[in-house]
Amino acid sequence: MSFSPQYSLYSPLLSIFLLMLAHGPFNTFVALEMEGNSVPIEVQGLIHSIYFFGLLLGPFCIERFMHKVGAIRSFIACCSAYAAAVALQALVPGLWVLVPMRFLAGLSISAIYLIIESWLMLAGGPDMRGRALSYYMISLYTGIAVGQFLLLTYDVGSLAPYLSVLFFLSLANIPVALTFRQAPATEILEPINAKGLIQDAFFGLTGLLISGMILSNVYSLFPIYFAEKNLSVPYYMALFIGAGALLQVLFGKLSDKYDRRTILLILSFTSGILFFQLEQTPPTSLMFPILIALLGGLSFSLYPISMAQVCDRYHADKIVKLTSYLMIVYGLGSIIGPGLSGLLMKYLGTNFLPASTGIYCTLFFLVGVVHLSTRRKISNELQVDTPVVGQTVVVSTENKGEERE
């Protein structure tokens, strides 16, 4: 079966790839620029948290707007808003401009994720959605990883990084704007009972919260950590993200075969140990890049497996709406992570970043031990396929049934 011919798949995939060439290195650049301007580390953490607060609010703002004007115009509007935030940040230096512009950037990129993912989910039948999501994640993480090396091509202290971002943001609009096929229509879905969700899937929600804390540290604070170690920030960020994109496929398959809670316990425990080990490993050691690659694969896998663990408890017709709730939980973790780790780094030093991230992993492991002893597992027949890291889980609507205990 192929994607419905009236809908375009290549346009949103090319647009998200071009967008990530701008977005990926710009987040790293902002972290390095603040460090270069001697912004206190706890303030840096709070500014990153404000960006992730925008990321949290994006789904609330875009759903009805996209329903009214369509995916294509919504995408172009959000790209334009992101470009305006970048341009104003370049034209008017200072924290009083940086803070609201980072919030606007987070709001815009979160809305863009939801637009593209909704487009791809609706572009074909249920049996094609997993494939569409895999293409999406390949485009997304390839763009982020390749984009890191753009930081090596220009002077970080000049306007070149801003101009590069504006260039790729402009290019990202073209494939979507010039598509010859229509974008699928969206619909407003009924809400899910939040209290029941927490009671039903507390462990999976905890995993999403903790993974938000971990990955927000990776994107916002680890560039500073690598710079302090006199390491190549683009290379190590690309290694971290690239390994995360590759190894999670293996762990996802394992979680489809075995109890997801057990896999999450193994991942969280091992990640915690390796983060603590990273703090003690000299950056000149051969083990250092190996640890970074392993941590990328382990820590990036926590998010999709936690998401699948939650989705195991709901039947397919609630999955799409459920995704927006899970994005909120992940967003809350993304707000907490940089703010809390930034404060810890202020008093304990930049070298404490791996240990603080390891503490988050250990906390999740302890929650998991308690949960594993009190709740029964979901049978393999009822488990949905684990997605690659992203903001959306999709399953076949042929999987009918009631909510699962």
| Overall average residue pLDDT | 79
- Quickly count the helices: 14
Helix/strand-derived category reads: mainly alpha
CATH topology label of the largest domain: Growth Hormone, Chain: A
What's the CATH architecture name of the largest domain? Up-down Bundle
Per CATH, the superfamily of the largest domain is: MFS general substrate transporter like domains
Strand content: under 5%
Q: Could you give a short account of the major beta sheet?
A: none
Residue stretches low in confidence (pLDDT < 50, at least 5 long) are 1-7, 389-405
Verbal overview:
Helix 2 (41-69) packs across helix 4 (95-122), helix 8 packs antiparallel against helix 14 and helix 11 packs antiparallel against helix 12. The protein has 2 domains: 9-188, MFS general substrate transporter like domains (Growth Hormone, Chain: A, Up-down Bundle), CATH 1.20.1250.20; 193-405, Growth Hormone, Chain: A, CATH 1.20.1250.20. It has 405 residues and is mainly α. The chain is 74% helix and 0% strand. The radius of gyration is 20 Å and the shape is globular.
SSE topology sketch:
Blueprint: H1 10-36, H2 41-69, H3 71-91, H4 95-122, H5 126-148, H6 160-177, H7 194-200, H8 202-220, H9 222-228, H10 233-257, H11 260-280, H12 287-311, H13 319-348, H14 353-372
Top keywords for this entry?
about 400 residues, mainly alpha, Growth Hormone, Chain: A, 2 domains, 14 helices, about 75% helix, disordered N terminus
What is shown here, in short?
By secondary structure, the protein is mostly helical. It is built from 14 helices and no strands.
